[in-house]
Design a protein that fits this description.
about 150 residues; mainly beta; disordered N terminus; globular
């Protein structure tokens, strides 16, 4: 099982397997996550427009279980970071990439796509991705979009 390295003290005993998918049900996945740790939001342009809330795991803690052929991918230029969405219903399900401040290679799971969870039950922290201010870490209120 992968440990989350999103600047947390997460450990294996808090990791649980969650299942999820897109709105139409074509894309299905499972992820090993520690949802006792805060989930996060980012103020970069795409995260702001998506309105997603994310939990992180290592690539080994994630797998697509159905309809990988229905996944589309969005990335900016040559960035190693991408967002995966269902080509049938358009729902953003997860992302991946490599950001040193997140512990290197990661998968970012849109918790709104997880089965049987209530996103209102989780503590949210915020990243300042809009200004590439990853080194500042997270805080408990949104970062401003304009400075």
């Amino acid at each position: 099982m992968a440990e989350v390295e999103q600047g947390s003290s997460s450990n294996r005993s808090n990791m649980k397997r969650y299942t999820g998918g897109c709105l139409c049900g074509a894309v299905r996945f499972e992820a090993e996550l520690d949802l006792s740790e805060p989930v996060s939001r980012c103020n970069c342009s795409i995260c702001t427009k998506l309105g997603s809330t994310n939990a992180y795991t290592k690539p080994s803690g994630f797998r697509v279980t159905a309809a990988e052929e229905h996944l589309g991918e969005h990335r900016l230029g040559a960035s190693p970071n991408y967002r995966a969405f269902c080509k049938r219903c358009g729902i953003y399900c997860f992302a991946g990439g490599d950001v040193e401040e997140l512990g290197g290679e990661f998968r970012s799971i849109n918790i709104h796509c997880l089965d049987d969870i209530d996103p209102a039950e989780y503590q949210v922290v915020y990243w300042d991705g809009r200004h590439d201010n990853w080194a500042a870490g997270t805080r408990d209120r949104p970062w401003p979009i304009k400075r």
